[in-house]
């Protein structure tokens, strides 16, 4: 059952810079940035918070709160981004939160527990005991002050998987390993629909032989038209060829598409610096890899040999890391699309990439059978082109017969 009434917000918390060796065995000294997010889930029976990030005291005094170890964990976080402020930003108060599910009790997850003295806390069994008495070599990662003030709060320990509301929408899964009582939440969010105003419009509506001739003005015109027809649907606008070749130009052009009516923009290829610039300036980005028509020599399937397949997986990962919230995979083998879908942390949308993608997109002109030539992967659910010609022929003959 899809959770028609469920909503979820990802709340970014502090950003920690850590050596890779801390995250994986043999990771080395290379420094990586890691987020410490929380997730707020709105269920008809109550608000659920998954994880609470770091304690805000580390903004001013990380060594005072975390101890000497904090010297090795540089923090980037502002007082405007603390968990209570983010929950307020959505329109709730911290006291509205009914359940706090704690994935585990490390310092980057349990730091905000004290915001919710009235909530029920849910953890995997043995987690609390371990948080108070961890193995000595791990003790630095557990801060007693994170959970000591909640000692008299209501804590529930689950020793098995548990369906939180009995409707399959939010499921507690016991996933021990990182700590003895570590858990995960499986959240069954509703499906979403998007409209993509693609630069394919140049070929299927405007008579060009490639998408490269499509200009910003063309895209603004078409996005505006779609917005007027679909005032409440998320519209993704395609960045035309060369409109996104450097971060400054891309930001300027993406803003023009947003002003024309788009909610987000899509751009082709692993232009990670561009994606990052747009996202950090508040513009949501959809990535696109596999066949990328703006630069492709032909429209044949790509990713067939091992090297090309590796390139596509790598590009998809880089696009997601740069901040895209979704990735279009075009005309690649089904098995490769499945690999990419499993590898990236964001939804994949397939066009000629098989049914294992998280979602699908088709050019509407192809799907309804406009014109007389369609990509091999596109199904025709009607032959509207034929219907138009038949109607026009009847009209012309009636005019000639003077019966109209
Ligand atoms: Zn941890």
Question: TL;DR?
Answer:
By secondary structure, this protein is α/β, with parallel strands linked by helices. 29% of the residues lie in helices and 21% in strands.
Give a written overview of the molecule.
By secondary structure, this protein is an alpha/beta fold. It has two domains: 7-187, 4-Layer Sandwich (Metallo-beta-lactamase, Chain A); 194-361, Alpha-Beta Barrel (TIM Barrel). The chain is 29% helix and 21% strand. The protein is built from 13 helices and 19 strands. It has helices at 20-23, 62-66, 83-90, 127-132, 144-147, 201-204, 216-229, 247-260, 272-280, 306-322, 334-343, 364-367, 384-400; strands at residues 7-11, 15-19, 31-35, 38-43, 46-50, 75-76, 97-101, 120-124, 154-158, 162-163, 170-174, 183-187, 194-197, 234-238, 264-266, 284-290, 326-330, 348-351, 359-360. The strands form four sheets. The protein has a seven-stranded parallel sheet. The protein has a six-stranded mixed sheet with strand order 1-4-5-7-8-9, covered by helices on one side. Strands 3-2-6 form a three-stranded antiparallel sheet. Helix 9 runs parallel beside helix 10 (306-322) and helix 10 packs parallel to helix 11 (334-343). The radius of gyration is 26 Å and the shape is elongated. The model has no long low-confidence stretch (mean pLDDT 95). Bound molecules: zinc ion. Zinc ion binds next to loops.
